[in-house]
């Protein structure tokens, strides 16, 4: 079957980033007014720099720092950007490139190019930052800079505040900007949603392409290659949102498989279950999709049992999602549905309510139900200032405990895995051993796991699933046998 695509990469209006700047400006002005502080100062962000591979002259493909990308949409390295809170003026600072740049890397663009391309009020060179901001400052005393400094609760790393020569000539505020700008990123505009939808569309199409081509005897990395090729060839997606997870057989119980020590290199065997977690990034905005299915295109009874347990949890959460719903409650709902299924099929015994009290769900689904999605795969803002992380198994891995709100894009990714490091202690514990049908659980040794992940937009009264891949067992088997997708319901 020849590879093709029904999709064309859409143009992304730079107005998307202009609106993001306006959203931040309104939010920070509101905060300053509420705090009885004057409405002046400059938001100043430093964009990303190109990185060499260790001490070599190999330059890794550049991808812009996410907060800078959010506000300015600049694809080149070495920039700074400022927003004047008093006037709303946006200022872009470009590096002053040496003449030899034109020989090796192409035309040196004039400042007018960056002003027009990125829809800013004015553009200058980075060596003019001090003079420009001092000239723009209308109040008395040193000009005030609001710099980005705060903790990313997914990575436990801090964002880097802008640095430049002569910054000592300015007053700096390191606490105000980060929570306000992070909260701006939590809900998406219509223009952002359109880009995320395309990332989902091309990634969904690529997942189906992999589904059609997977065969026993292939290597896991070949599945990754098919996906990456399709999203780049037909979607213009040079970057993936994250390192592809192409796990088969027992590897599918390794939650973050695909890393350098486990680089998607196993040979697929007939009878394997594949768990493929891959998402493309388009114009900074990402997707995050997981499909699980048998390598040979036919589910066994045990594969069907676990797959349907996870699918039921996935569908139950999506049916319940709407503004105001607690993400903690959604995680517990997914756990309960999976435990109900495992009990119904004889893998577990006893009262599911008692299992929940003993946190048995975390033995089978140790990760959180999902996360915010946008410019980063794990978009920031999952934890508002105040509430502590929950310490209980499973729930401690949640990337947010918020109530969902309209405009959020969030992943729904329940899973059920057979991980010896979790099962053996639970089956041997006096508190939980009674819940296990040990003989039935033994059938699943080496099984791996199933994860089903879709990207979901929270709407005014419910939600919309942005991901478009086969999910029902009948759909998957039909597509893997050569049926078109979407299926022709009339036939």
UniProtKB/TrEMBL annotation:
Metal-binding in keyword set: yes
Keywords: Dipeptidase, Hydrolase, Manganese, Metal-binding, Metalloprotease, Protease
Annotated GO MF terms: manganese ion binding; metalloaminopeptidase activity; proline dipeptidase activity
Alphabetical GO biological process terms: proteolysis
Keyword Manganese: yes
Main EC class the enzyme belongs to: hydrolase
Origin: domain of life: Eukaryota
InterPro entries: Aminopep_P_N (IPR007865), Creatin/AminoP/Spt16_N (IPR029149), Creatinase/aminopeptidase-like (IPR036005), Pept_M24 (IPR000994), X-Pro_dipept-like (IPR052433)
Known catalytic reactions: Xaa-L-Pro dipeptide + H2O = an L-alpha-amino acid + L-proline
Protein EC: 3.4.13.9
Pfam name, any one: Peptidase_M24
Cofactors demanded by this protein: Mn(2+)
Family annotation (SUPFAM superfamilies): Creatinase/aminopeptidase, Creatinase/prolidase N-terminal domain
Listed Gene3D superfamilies: Creatinase/methionine aminopeptidase superfamily, Creatinase/prolidase N-terminal domain
Domain Aminopeptidase P N-terminal: 12-156
Quaternary organization: Homodimer.
PANTHER family: PEPTIDASE D, PTHR48480
Family listed: Belongs to the peptidase M24B family. Eukaryotic-type prolidase subfamily.
Protein name: Xaa-Pro dipeptidase
Species: Rosa chinensis
